[in-house]
Amino acid sequence: MRLLITLVVLAGLVAGGVAFYKPLLESIEAANRPTFRTQTAERGPVTEVINATGTIEPVESVHVGAFVSGTIVTLEADFNDEVEAGDLLAEIDPRLYQSNVARDEAALAARKAELQRAEAMLEHAKKDEERAKTTKARSPTSIPDAEIDEVTFSRMAKEAEIEVAEAAVRQAEANLGNSKANLDYTRIVAPVSGIVIDRKIDRGQTVAAQFQTPELFVIAPDMRERVRIFAAVDEADIGRIRTSRESGRPVRFTVDAYPGEMFSGEIEQVRLNSDTLQNVVTYPVVLSAANSELKLLPGMTADISFEIDTRTDVLRVPNAALRFFPKREHVREEDLPILDGEEVLADLRSSSAVQPDAESRAEAEEDRRRHVWVEENGLLKAVAVETGLSDYRTTEVIAGDIDEGLALVVGVRDDS
Length: 416
Fold this sequence. Notes:
Layout: H1 2-32, E1 35-40, E2 42-58, E3 62-65, E4 70-75, E5 82-83, E6 88-92, H2 95-138, H3 145-185, E7 187-189, E8 194-199, E9 206-207, E10 215-220, E11 226-234, H4 235-246, E12 251-255, E13 263-270, E14 275-277, E15 280-290, E16 301-318, H5 319-323, H6 336-354, H7 358-366, E17 369-376, E18 379-390, E19 394-400, E20 407-413
Antiparallel strand pairs: 1-20, 2-11, 2-16, 3-10, 4-6, 4-9, 5-8, 6-7, 8-10, 11-15, 12-13, 12-16, 13-15, 14-15, 16-19, 17-18, 18-19
Helix pairs in contact: 2-3
């Protein structure tokens, strides 16, 4: 009887302990269970873009130089001045060139006077020849043939002197034209209308043009209308850039000078002259953008987004959900093989990002079957999805067991 009572008491104590510790264990387990951060799948647009940086430049830069040497005595244009074609920009000391013009004018006058004297002597020689021949015709014996030959050859010599004098006049005129041109070159005028974006001289500075043309000004015509942005695009993206250009998709960019303001442009040219730097091949892509407010200045850096494709009203998931890889202890047992495969795939993506080749790019194209994770009974369950377009925040879901509003795990909350 005593043994029976003892057994009953022990059974009661065990039952009470079990009843007490089971909730305690469950409480401890719940406290140690991780809290997952989630974002929901939603419907909306997805736009795929390629990002690049570029430099803003004028559509055209006209470099204005000096053809003659001398000291700058007049400076009429400064930085940022808007000039019209023919406006005076600067003037080189003209005194030496004015003297050359006066000298050549005097030389031309002398040559013209020599021509007039030669013409007069020719007329005199013609008269002598005419009289001698008339007299010879009347009286053949009155004038010997030698005298007739003398006056004839004298007339021919005077005609040759006329040709020499005329050539001298033409030479003097050419010298005078050269001196006048050099005098005109002392006035540096704007060849085109535009904005002076650079001035390389100051008043009193001496320019020397004997060996090469010195650069004095740089003028950007039509900069209030349009500017160009030169971007270097990776060879892996250049095909999609050309497709975007052919389909007329927009290009948007920002500059640091106006944070938050978005500018738009269009792809004007995809150039064929590639550039290789550290085994990375890029191609120049030239954009054109309006600049009516003159906000875009030469040399600015533009952060460019080329729109490649877009989808409207599609089911999309956060990119963070596709990038999330859970710990093994947080995953259901039946999904551990999927987790292992995802980890291997992540290693492959990491290695191919460092050294891209044709094989890794082909694998990336085939890798549209991805997994996202949802919480189920405190553990994570893998959901297979097929992805489409992706932007910087979300990715289109083409197929998969996902509905709008489904909470997708993007991380583990750290409550420590």
